[in-house]
Amino acid sequence: MTEQQTIFLAKSEIKANDMEHKRKVAFNIQKYNDSVVKGKQQFANLDLARRKAKNIKWKTIENLDTYLEQFEKNFTAHGGKIIWAETAEEALQGILQICREKNTKQVVKAKSMVTEEIHLNDFLAQNGIDSVETDLGEYIQQLDGEPPYHIVTPAMHKSKEDVARVFHEKLGTEPNLTPPEITKIARRNLRKKYITAEVGITGGNFLLADIGGVCVTENEGNARLTTTFPKTQISIVGIEKLLPSINDLQLFWPLLATFGTGQNLTVYNTIFTGPRKADETDGPEEMYVILLDNGRTNLLRKEVRESMYCIRCGSCLNACPVYKNIGGHAYGATYSGPIGSVITPHLKGMAEYKHLSYASSLCGNCTEVCPVKINIHEMLLENRSIAEGLHLNGFAENITWRLWRDAMMSRRLMNLVGPGMKNKVVNKLFSDSWGKHRGDLKFAEKSFNKMWKDRKKS
User: How far apart are CA 223 and CA 165, in angstroms?
Assistant: First the structure.
């Protein structure tokens, strides 16, 4: 058992039996589900929209090299600068070099999962640069010293009382503040940072190849402030975020909003095509886009290629029974839930993270709710097959499952063992996993097979 698997099992056991944690998550996810039902009503034919979106992403990924070059050409034509980063370290060093050239001591950062992926805040802190999260959920998590809990809602696991506690402990505010009071304090603290920061950092929801544009979608306006006041803007984006044309946004923006938060359209949708022009009144003097691979080309293998279609809406997390029981932090990875379990082993190493692909009931609900119809549960099975083909499961595990398979597929062997023996074998064999928090299984005195034979005799 790997270190990551041991940690995953330990954290999962704690959270799966934490009733208060499960209550908070269930409450917040139910609010999401209610909103999504309403949001879907804006589509005259939702299934057609999803199939069209999947076809566009298929076209993009099949021609990824062409669209990346087209994006670079069009973005640099408007005065922007491109940095190609094969690894997280290359991306970090590229950002550090820019910050040092600008003599930067502080940066403001909009919500971005890819910056979490490369652990940007910790890296900048180690180099004497203060990085401030400006998204309210991310700001709460940064104050509390925790990574984001969810792809879309970073502090989903916290109640309003939890947030008030964080502000009281970290900022010295009055205890038991209301949500409006908390928001006002965050706004007051963060607005000072926008004015003094030399560099603003964002991610990107989509890259538009035909115009060389970076799309940033948000609900709070913090990303616009992050890109307006600082003289230098850095957008770090995964190479899979490409769309062929700006015209594709009329489909992808509503899909992202509906499946992400249940809105018809997110409040702020901005397209950046480079630094401020001579006739423009605001925006950065310099703009960089870092195109990050960091293992994404590993996802181009045919078994999991569809995972690159993901638009990071988070809907599969909210639908997953495993995620709802163990929470986002148990996964020990930037991308949690079903889609995280598909891509993390390829981004960070199959040997260390193969166990995530087994953390699924394979109910298929993740596939059902995906806005671009990614076959997530099938790719979880493919990951298991890949791990087995690489001989990563261990001799004892392989033998155990082979014997289990042979027994379950043989009616003759099943009939040889009576219910008493079945009870003993199953309840003893799985006493530490299944039986630890559950009562013993009890097999019926007569199997269906035996009852069917008796019925035919009579």
Answer: 26
